[in-house]
Predict the structure.
Amino acid sequence: MLKYSQFVDEHHARIEPVPQGMRRPRWSVLIPCYNCAAFLEKTLQSVLGQDPGPAGMEIMVIDDCSDRDDPAAVVDRIAGNRVQFFRQQANVGKVRNYETGLHACRGQLVHQLHGDDLVLPGFYREMETAFRRFPQAGAFFCESDYIDEAGKVVGKTGKELEETDILDNWLPRIAQAQRIQTPAMVVRREVYEALGGFDRRLDCSEDWEMWIRIASRYPVGFCATARAQYRTSAGNNSSLSIIRGTRGRTQRAMFDIVDGYLPPSLVASIRKPRAVKLALDFCGQLPKSIDRGGFREWLRVCGEIARFQSGPTVLRRAASLTARHLWKKWRRPLRRLAMV
């Protein structure tokens, strides 16, 4: 078992083991939220529709002092006393909000489900089956749909395996690229006890760092029959981190963190493809940057891309996306001008 001293420090909360003899449910479903009460009802319904009862599952909503809505009223209306509600006295940030749930929960399996995300029917049953079949696994995850604010599916993550199993050679793959959305991941509580909480230095990509940390110490499996849904609304943390210009800086900081505990040979093998992948991902923000802030915002995103990688593949992608968007944006005005 990993010693606390390797990861539990001022940057990682110590998650104490559940006291011996305490009755424990199999599941802890932790629902952190902040100003997303408009989506919370559907999130809760997606869990309660699969609820095995209090003996088998505890459900907690942890609110980071929302100031634009009332998640407590939603919880009371939808779930009554079935769901525990915690409210921070002041906004503590999402990582420390996560810690509140990890400290409070008592289940053997921990599922963190953001307050605007969903799980599809059968999620907990299929995950339970996977953990029982593969007791050596520290965590299991599944495929995710990306959904917009209206709930329409607009994309999906990759299907890692056709059949539920432990993933081979998983650490290099997850260390090179983020392949998991948080609502798709279930972690044994004892893993958090050994590895500590999410890294407090990160205000985005803290989930990716955690999945790398887990993969560096435990077998991780893919559940081919479960499914989660991750909402890509404009107000979620990933979108806001791009708008605020903090995402690139934080991801580079995250790389420094994980490179410090991964084997040097692995770091050397993933450094370039990881940089290219992130640069290409950021290229996808160029059309939005033009609409959001014009040429100045476009230049800022170009600078973020260059800090990761600026080789021919990346330059071609950036130029193509920019040109296509500008043509789409200006072709009608130009045609009208030509007719004058």
About this structure: The chain has two domains: 4-239, 270-339. The chain has a mean pLDDT of 93.
